Structure prediction request, 124 residues.
Amino acid sequence: QVQLVESGGGLVQAGGSLRLSCAASGRTFSRYAIGWFRQAPGKERELLAAITWSSGITYYADSVKGRFTISRDNAKNTLYLQMNSLKPEDTAVYYCAADRTTAQNMGVHAPDYWGQGTQVTVSS
Prediction:
């Protein structure tokens, strides 16, 4: 059974940084992409970044390009999202998700597997 467990959320001031982690287990992810989504109250869920697990090819949404960096540690089966220059509008619940696809196609349909989410709050 696939498990995705996020950690690293919290409260940070505008301009600050946070690093989210997602520990993945339950299967090999060599044919999967794993990505980060977020959902703010009253807004639709948004794909932020994704990585094709085997190749390391990445995808970024325009809203986070240049501020957020996705990476993975194959040995630890862990995904990361380094978030810099945070803004109040980045406040949301952040989710890790996995799907049998590529990073570029991660947002085509809802991924099969989701983590429980971690809250990120950016104060002004």
User: Anything to note?
Assistant: The chain is about 0% helix and 50% strand. Residues 31 and 118 are 25 Å apart (CA to CA).
